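User: For my dataset I need records formatted as: sequence, then structure tokens, nothing else. Please produce one.
Assistant:
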Amino acid sequence: MSMYSFKWPKWIFPLIVAWCATQAAENARAQSLLSNLEHEISALVQQGEPAVTSIISYVRESDEKKDDSPLFSLFSSKSSHQPFTRIKIGSGLFFHKSGFIVTRKSVVANACSIRVRIYTGEEMDAELIGIDEEHEVGLLRVPGVRELPHVPFGQPAKLRAGSWIIVMGNSLGVTPAVSVGNVSAVRENGLIQITANIDPGHNGSPVLNANGEIIGMVSGRVDYPVPQQGVYLTASNAALVMPIDQVLDSVKKILEAYSRRHGWLGITVTPNPKDEVHPLVSKIEPGSPADQAGLRPGDVILGFNGQELDHYYALLGLVKKTPPGTATTIRVQREGRELQLAITIGKMDFSRLFSKPLWAEHPAGAKMQAVPLDSRAMLEKRLLEMERQIRELRAKIIKSP
């Protein structure tokens, strides 16, 4: 029979129309699913972005131990015969409105100076508060930073193998560099192993769950050798995450040690428009040593403990070096008059940082549309069914007289 005299069975056209309609519906459903997923990931990234900071540490070559090189050290300004400064770029987790940033020890260890860049693009100097050597956690503080949107904490204990996570950090200077992955396993020591694309600079990055809550901080990559044409290369798409509860335990440990060694006044200062050297008191914390000594907003600090201030940041260094409980004096200028006030250096109480519940009572992502975890399996099942129908259609065409 000539193919030009072939007649299609009447039942074939409704089947083709139905199949095309089914395919169009499935394509539309798949497109809608992908669109919803993209929207949710974008919303989670926007919610978690205030917690992401870029950290740039400058380390003198003579200060850095050879066995303490950072995982993500990028480049250095080394010359052949002179000391050089190594530049280390990493990420940090901005976790409290007082300006505290937590990161990994490898990012900030032995740094002679540290700069941080917050999500608004502002860049500023940071003070190294301390390092928890046992867990290799570093704590920074940026004095006087404006209050940023709060990103809630999640509960790492609720994570299971397969749970979705989002890593947000610094990748070769690009912030935020976003990587979506999932939990591979939870190790016996509490560390969470994840599968995600971890770039150089992600060390110290915050990790979010599917609700946009912070559940941990990247501790480092899990590297393994891969043979490639007789040469073993290092490859990895796995990383270890320190749960947020362990991170905050390290923060408490660092702050307790810091408060025992360093003095505290309880004032906020700003640059003096009339004098670049002497800071201007802008805020007094109630009940603080400064409040008890009679300092007032608007006072200009001229000297501390008998020493003149020679630059704007000198006061911070002098107070830090004075042990808590030390009785001393502070010299100020008030309304054109110079005053010398007696003051007893205090100890900063960091317990108020953790006075609120650790976990978010109302998950930030509770109102977000949920994407079914089994949606991919449903699509695959439907595609297999469509393939079966096509095979049956072909068989009927071949058998038709």
